[in-house]
Specification:
Blueprint lengths: L13 E4 L4 E5 L17 H13 L3 H23 L3 H8 L14 H8 L11 H12 L5 H4 L17 H6 L4 H10 L3 E6 L6 H15 L3 E5 L2 H17 L10 E3 L13 H4 L6 H8 L2 H16 L2 H16 E3 L3 H43 L4 H50 L6 H97 L10 E2 L17 H21 L1 H43 L7 E5 H6 L1 H4 L3 E7 L6 H8 L2 E9 L43 H8 L2 H4 L5 H6 L3 E3 L2 E2 L4 H12 L4 E2 L9 E5 L9 E3 L2 E3 L1 H23 L7 E5 L2 H16 L6 E4 L8 E7 L18 H14 L2 E9 L1 H5 L4 H7 L7 E5 L12 E3 L6
Parallel strand pairs: 3-10, 3-11, 4-8, 4-9, 5-8, 6-7, 9-10, 12-13, 14-20, 14-21, 17-18, 17-19, 19-20
Antiparallel strand pairs: 1-2, 15-16, 21-22
């Protein structure tokens, strides 16, 4: 944890220890003010190099923990440095500004000036944004591609790319570019050292083209919109020139930060492209323009429909004819009441007719009931006969059952005797037994004869009983059929009685319903009580009574019928006058307009669906399933939730040396296959980057550059700060990887340098080679016949004086000299344009913001008078990549100034001056005008000034001395022949 006051209060050690080696990577934010101070002479670049070498000895997992821990602690330290203590805040910000809401403009410059350290915070405009960056860094999970940057192992051998041969035939890549391209499209981490003009944009475009062809996803990011758009513009040019068809909607998306409220910060080629920006890509993919146009046409056609105008016309006619409190409008609205009255009359009539028919129906039913008068007596007699027949049948049935039982017993006995006789009839051997059997057989025969007589005698009563039983059964069947007939007649009688009861109930209901209908009719008729005078005049609908507001109800039906007849007369009069037809047409038109309004609601629903589809597609373009190539600034990675969660096969970070190392590491950590950091560590360092990298206004706004007497003199970590963590805050990503000059770049296994430059003439390349690039640069251009570098000696300017302005300097005399050069250039350009040649560009650059603002003010006045538009700014805020003609005010008089210390082997101030001088010299593509004190520069010992002094005897250089100007006689400046020797 880190205290808000910037002091270290808690110990946190990120150490890596093993049996083979033990390395304490950082004890950041662990020391207190009582600990031994760090050696102030220790060079943090050397510390970073040693750290990189030690990191290279670790395994991938150990490097992951080490690098991430250092970055997280550095992010926390940067946030602490951005927030002053309450005492410091109250002393610098005043009572009106809260100490817990510092801004980059108010807190950091003052804090840096008082403490003597550079602006190392992550603040980009507000503290909450800085905390978001800090959280991202603390949660960083880099892949092996970004961690490979810290490894001493040789990267995977670069593989050939699939760039179409027709591209190489038109503008072949030089060997250095080819090696860089092969590295950028191969696995692992790569550092591409790309000095200005060496074709890094072409290599980046080729790498993206190869990724698209091989189906890999790419993140192209940089600190500024300009760098991102330059690479996109090159890629578009290749795709357009060779008609490759690679860049289609949804393939390459230019994501813009939510803080970018307009497209003024983007290159015109990108801002005006039909489908590069995320919004436009989503619009093209969803057909937003066409679908929106169809909806707009539908809305326009609906709003301009003839029915709407017809309805308005009819309503206007009605309004013009509306004069009375009652009239045709009321009649027309009461037409419904009249129809209800007629319906009620018809119902009443029908009910009365039904009521009149009920007595006849009752008479008929009563006549039917007379036929059933004897039905009860018949049922009584029938029941008596049924009872008697049933008793007789039961008696005879009992008798029959008795005789049948005796007969059955006799027959059984007879059968048994027959069986016994049959057994006795068998012969026996014994005589006495035979005689006994014969006697028994004779007795049985006698019994059988007696039983046969008895059976024969019983047949007669059984026959008689059987006949009687059958007779009474038939009688009961006859009575049963009579009972069915009687039941049917009883049912008919019951039905008649029910019909009589129903007629009575219906009569009562009819009487009640007629009473209700008559009351309702009277109410409705009361609402029709109107004045018949001028009844044909249309009236205001607001005066129309409603059914809930009945008029005077009549006392009887006769009065109601009279009122209804009176209304009918008035209505017929309104019909004859045409008012009723006009109202009917108006109602029909209003109904059609209602339908049109419903159609508008449906169009609105389709509009909502279109917007949802567009927003869904826009979000999807930035997700893993979206566009394969995303191009955005590093800041945009923070603003887009989709990009925060997305990873890529290839990550290319342009201007890597110009961006804070922590942000570069965060962008690089999104790489899964290949990570390429492209930049020039000998150009502007990270801590001098503009607070608003996308600023495009000609007025210089960056105030991070300070004069030599207030510039930092060392980047050595102050007491209490770990040097490794301090290095993450103050150095570029190349220095953290151990690359600080041409020699260390050549030794680094992952670094690939571009050396052949195409932008500026050889004399400029030779100059920057002397004090920056150690002979690395080669020029692809031929030495031009015209002078390239003009040095305007300002030592003889009258009243030349450098004035201190805040943390910067300004000089009115050299500012006016720059304006004179612009006027001369503009006069020459007018003749060039008359000759039909292409127009050139011009810019002004200087290390001091006060001088840049002064020159910008003079040039803006000149432009109001018809002068040219001139790009103007400080070295680190100059927007164009390069201009044809550059005016470079060195802000150098006869005293030591910042740029006069240009020395890469010196302290921080000297290295910063050398880098700024390098930037200024390489902004010109054709001609550069240097303004300064030649005598002082010629005798200055710094390598940068010696490189300028050596121009004195080279072809392509002219020294122009500015003689004192007189108010009476203005003399032209004299030119010293560059071939003369003193």
């Amino acid at each position: 944890m880190i205290g808000e006051s910037g002091k270290q209060v808690t110990t946190r050690t990120a150490g890596i220890a093993s049996a083979d080696h033990s390395l304490t990577v950082s004890t950041a934010i662990t020391r207190t003010d009582q600990t031994d101070p760090i050696d102030p002479l220790a060079d943090p670049l050397d510390v970073a190099v040693d750290n990189a070498h030690q990191l290279a000895e670790l395994s991938v997992d150990e490097r992951r923990a080490t690098v991430v821990d250092q970055a997280a602690l550095a992010a926390q330290a940067a946030l602490v440095l951005a927030v002053p203590s309450p005492d410091q805040a109250s002393g610098r910000l005043g009572s009106s500004q809260a100490a817990d809401k510092p801004t980059a403009a108010s807190v950091n410059p003052a804090f840096a000036h008082q403490t003597g350290i550079p602006d190392v915070s992550l603040i980009d405009g507000d503290l909450s944004r800085s905390r978001r960056w800090c959280d991202l860094i603390c949660q960083l999970e880099p892949g092996d591609a970004s961690l490979d940057l810290w490894s001493s192992e040789t990267s995977l051998k670069p593989t050939p790319t699939s760039i179409p041969p027709e591209y190489r035939s038109e503008q072949p890549l030089n060997p250095g570019q080819q090696r860089a391209l092969a590295a950028m499209t191969s696995a692992g981490g790569h550092l591409i050292w790309a000095p200005p003009g060496t074709g890094k944009t072409a290599v980046i475009a080729a790498a993206i083209q190869d990724a698209i062809a091989t189906g890999r996803t790419v993140l192209l990011t940089a600190l500024t919109n300009r760098a991102v758009d330059n690479a996109i513009g090159c890629l578009l040019g290749i795709d357009r020139h060779f008609d490759l068809g690679l860049i289609t909607p949804g393939v390459l998306v230019r994501a813009v930060s939510d803080k970018t409220t307009s497209h003024d910060r983007l290159a015109p080629e990108v801002a005006d492209h039909p489908f590069l920006l995320t919004d436009r890509a989503a619009a093209v993919m969803t057909g937003l323009t066409q679908r929106q146009a169809e909806l707009d046409r539908a809305v326009k056609a609906n709003q301009q429909h003839a029915d709407r105008s017809a309805a308005r016309s009819l309503l206007a006619q009605i309004k013009r004819r509306d004069r009375q409190a009652r009239g045709a409008r009321l009649l027309n609205q009461q037409k419904t009441l009249v129809d209800q009255c007629h319906a009620l009359t018809a119902q009443i009539t029908a009910l009365q007719a039904e009521s009149a028919s009920l007595p006849d129906q009752r008479t008929a039913i009563e006549q039917e009931l007379t036929a059933f008068a004897e039905l009860a007596q018949q049922q009584l007699r029938h029941n008596t006969a049924v009872s008697a027949a049933s008793q007789s049948l039961m008696a005879w049935q009992e008798l029959l059952d008795s005789h049948s039982a005796g007969l059955d017993a006799a027959v059984a006995e007879q059968t048994d005797l027959a069986q016994r006789q049959e057994r006795l009839a068998k012969r026996s051997i014994l005589p006495w037994l035979a005689r006994r059997r014969a006697q028994h057989s004779a007795d049985i025969a006698a019994q059988r004869q007696s039983l046969a007589a008895s059976i024969e005698a019983a047949q007669a009563p059984i026959s008689e009983a059987t006949g009687q039983v059958d007779q009474w059964r038939r009688r009961l069947e006859e009575l049963a059929s009579d009972e069915v007939m009687l039941s049917a007649r009883q049912s008919l009688a019951d039905q008649c009685r029910q019909r009589l009861l129903g007629l009575d109930q219906r009569q009562s209901a009819i009487d009640q319903e007629i009473s209700q209908l008559e009351n309702r009719f009277a109410q409705l008729a009361g609402q029709l009580a109107i004045t018949t005078d001028d009844s044909s005049v249309i009236t205001d609908p607001s005066t129309t009574p409603t059914p809930d507001q009945p008029g005077t109800a009549p006392t009887d039906m006769v009065m109601a019928q009279a009122q209804l007849a009176d209304w009918q007369r008035c209505y017929q009069a309104a019909e004859r006058s045409g008012d009723i037809d006009l109202l009917h047409h108006s109602d029909a038109a209003v109904a059609r307009v209602t339908q049109l309004d419903a159609e508008l609601l449906e169009i609105a629903r389709r509009q909502t669906e279109l917007e949802d589809d567009y927003r869904r597609t826009r979000r999807q373009l930035l997700t893993d399933d979206g566009a394969p190539v995303i191009a955005c600034t590093i800041e945009a990675l923070l603003d887009s939730p989709e990009l925060l969660a997305r990873r890529f096969d290839l990550v290319i970070v342009d201007e890597a040396a110009h961006a804070p190392a922590l942000k570069v590491l965060y962008a690089a950590a999104k790489a899964d296959f290949s990570c390429s950091l492209v930049g020039d560590f000998l150009q502007n360092p990270p801590f001098s980057a503009p607070a608003d990298p996308g600023q495009t206004t000609n007025a210089p706004t960056n105030t991070s550059t300070v004069a030599a007497d207030t510039a930092p003199t060392s980047l050595t970590a102050p007491t209490g700060h770990d040097p490794l963590i301090w290095a993450w805050l103050t150095q570029d990503i190349f220095a953290l990887a151990g690359i600080t000059d041409a020699a260390s770049a050549a030794r680094h296994r992952h670094c690939h340098a571009l050396s052949l430059q195409y932008r500026y003439p050889p004399i400029i390349a030779e100059t920057v080679n002397r004090f920056c690039y150690d002979g690395l640069l080669e020029s692809a251009q031929q030495t031009p016949a015209h002078p390239v570098i003009f040095f305007h000696d300002s030592s003889q300017l009258p009243r030349r004086a450098f004035q201190h302005d805040g943390h910067s300097w300004r000089c009115e005399q050299t500012a006016l000299l720059a304006v004179d050069i612009v006027k001369q250039w503009a006069a020459k350009q007018r003749s060039v344009r008359r000759a039909g040649s292409d127009a050139a560009s011009i810019g002004f650059i200087t290390p001091d913001v006060a001088q840049a603002q002064l020159v910008w003010w003079h040039l803006s006045q000149l432009q109001h008078q018809g002068g040219p538009a001139v790009a103007c700014g400080t070295i680190d805020s100059f927007e164009p990549v390069a201009v044809d003609t550059l005016i470079f005010d060195l802000m150098q008089d006869d005293q030591p100034r910042w740029l006069s210390q240009a020395d890469l082997s010196s302290d921080v101030s000297g290295r910063s001056a050398a880098k700024m001088l390098n930037v200024g010299l390489t902004k010109a593509t054709s001609v550069i005008h240097l303004l300064g004190d030649w005598e002082f520069i010629a005798h200055s010992p710094s390598p940068g000034m010696r490189a300028l002094a050596q121009l004195r005897w080279q072809p392509g250089f002219e020294l122009i001395q500015q003689p004192p100007k007189s108010t009476k006689n203005h003399r032209q400046p004299t030119t010293i022949n560059n071939q003369l020797r003193p």
